[in-house]
Amino acid sequence: MITQAVRQILTAVGEDPDRPGLVETPDRVARMYAEVFSSLEDREFKDYKIFDSDHDQDEIVLVKDIPFYSMCEHHLLPFFGTVSVAYIPKDGKIIGLSKIPRLVDFVSHKPTLQENITAEIAQTLDHILKPAGVAVIVKARHMCMEMRGVKKTNSQTRTTYYSGAFKTPQTRQDLMLQLQAV
Ligand SMILES: [Zn+2]
């Protein structure tokens, strides 16, 4: 289906989908879409495990600058950048650190918006981990801004989501210091 649709788009923009350089393009795009939109098959994030920490930790856990790649739902063009995720455990509940980049991938692999990615990461962690607070900071470049219209190349868009303890200025300040230190 995607293969056919890509052929139609190529024809519609005035290309010849049968010329040598393009013959395999519709198949290739179809395989690529299966990968970059893989989260559409699985609506719920299940790839995680919650552990009980040995000590009652209540310090900020921070995973900084996780790279992500996604597709803007308004233009189907890539936007990409980094995500920093912080949480403060409650009742000794912690999540395997490797699962946080998996969650970032999970929310990114569908047509979406930077604001949604930011909120979904935070809300999923709030839901599965029930921590004292979550902070998510996303910085991204958007090809739909840079390739078209006003060409503001290299401009970064920053979005944030804070829940629980991170709504207080003191905790927010602790986080900012840690973000600079790591
Ligand atoms: Zn866009």
Automatic annotation (TrEMBL):
This is GTP cyclohydrolase 1. HAMAP family: FolE. Belongs to the GTP cyclohydrolase I family. The keyword NAD does not apply. GO terms for biological process: one-carbon metabolic process; tetrahydrobiopterin biosynthetic process; tetrahydrofolate biosynthetic process. Residues 2-177 form the GTP cyclohydrolase I domain. The gene is folE. Its EC number is 3.5.4.16. GO terms for cellular component: cytoplasm. The lineage of its organism: Bacteria, Bacillati, Bacillota, Bacilli, Lactobacillales. Homopolymer. Pfam families: GTP_cyclohydroI (PF01227). Pathway: Cofactor biosynthesis; 7,8-dihydroneopterin triphosphate biosynthesis; 7,8-dihydroneopterin triphosphate from GTP: step 1/1. Zn(2+) binds at C72, H75, C144. It catalyses: GTP + H2O = 7,8-dihydroneopterin 3'-triphosphate + formate + H(+). The keyword Nucleotide-binding applies. GO terms for molecular function: GTP binding; GTP cyclohydrolase I activity; zinc ion binding. Keywords: GTP-binding, Hydrolase, Metal-binding, Nucleotide-binding, One-carbon metabolism, Zinc.
